[in-house]
Specification:
Layout (H helix, E strand, L loop, with lengths): L13 H20 L10 H9 L4 H10 L2 H5 L2 E10 L2 E4 L2 E2 L8 E11 L16 E4 L3 E5 L2 E3 H8 L4 E5 L2 E3 L8 H7 L5 E5 L7 H5 L10 E7 L5 H8 L6 E6 L5 H16 L9 E3 L5 H8 L2
Parallel strand pairs: 1-4, 4-5, 4-6, 6-8, 7-9, 8-10, 10-11, 11-12, 12-13
Antiparallel strand pairs: 1-2, 2-3
Length: 296
Amino acid sequence: MDSSHPQSITSSNPKREAEKSIMVSRKHAKFMATYCQQDFSMPDSVIFYIAKNPKTAVLYLKMVKTCKYFFVKNPINIIDCLYTRYGKWGVNEKPLDLTKYNCKYWITDHIWACADEFVDKNILSPIIPKLYRCDVKHVSLSDQIISYHDFSFIISSVEEIYLNRVIVKHADGSDVPIEDIIAIAVNAQDVYVYKPTITPKTMKELLQIPHFATLDRLTLCDLSEMFDINAFYSYMKKNHHTKFFLNFNEQISEGYMNRLETIVDEILETKQFNYKPPGINFTGLDIQKYRLLFSM
């Protein structure tokens, strides 16, 4: 998955920001000045329902281009890619204050939120109430803390998920394990998680999720030995679809490393595969074995 950063957002000076604000106000006033009551061939209640319940972003754009009534009754801005840079939200390489305007936002393709360059690890959650819908196909989050409720809102349609040191929290304050994240990512095809929350039941719970078997790729990095490697290995040899990449942290025990080494040797000795050989990496793995394994 491409995790490259969007281009930097350049900060404007106060005078320019004030001029932009005045310009936006004038455009809004001009827009409203030409708005007038419409006479539709259908009952007002039906038109109002249509305005409040657009099925797709494309349909909504066609509606508002046809008649201003639909925007007035349900003001939504359509955004394809929403991202953060240096602590500010941006779109199309320009800063965007999502709390400034009295409208909702419909995100259609990508959300990218990162806290690398600043302290705030909760930049995503405050804007969730401003989102009308989230139909994104790609989510890239780094160094974020987000509630399970908010995460569920943005993840349901996502096909590619990149989570780097992201903590998803239940309402009771507990961390959400990776199996609960996979469970709500019903359209996921490619999932990358660095420092996932793992429990002894993680692998068993993952096997209960129907769409887990249809993932194209699953990458889990910095795994602890709490991960049930035997259950994984048994399942992996039965799964003909998913390519797995597992990276384990340096704290795993010698016994666990020995078990990983045995699994790697068995894979390398296999002449014909009816599954996709996984990439497995851990401290102490022979470099030649590593190269052979990741070249398969």
